[in-house]
Design goal:
With 91 residues, the chain is α+β, with helices and mostly antiparallel strands. The chain is built from 2 helices and 3 strands. It has one domain. The termini are far apart.
């Protein structure tokens, strides 16, 4: 199996993925899929929705083996959350 290499800088990767999601994909997937993962090929605009990153990636790569994949969690700003959920002090 050949190792796939990124063809874009991290910044361009993120910019393309976010733009595709906001303008084309979000309206199609938002209803009823909150919390699921969208895998997006930033070159073709093709996407797949699944419960987790691995399954979304597998579905997309089965159709587009050379995909440059960007992931988004529907209804969230990031795929994963690190650290404390809330740092607000209760007074």
């Amino acid at each position: 199996m050949a190792v796939r290499q990124p063809r874009y800088s991290k910044e361009e990767f993120a910019q393309r993925g976010d733009a595709l999601y906001k303008t084309q994909i979000r309206p199609q997937v938002e209803d009823g899929n909150h919390g699921k993962i969208v895998a997006i090929d930033i070159e073709t605009g093709a996407f797949e929705v699944a419960e987790d990153v691995v399954n979304a990636s597998d579905l997309l790569l089965a159709k587009y083996p050379d995909a440059q994949t960007w992931f988004i969690r529907i209804g969230h700003q990031a795929v994963y959350h690190f650290g404390a959920r809330s740092l607000k002090a209760t007074v």
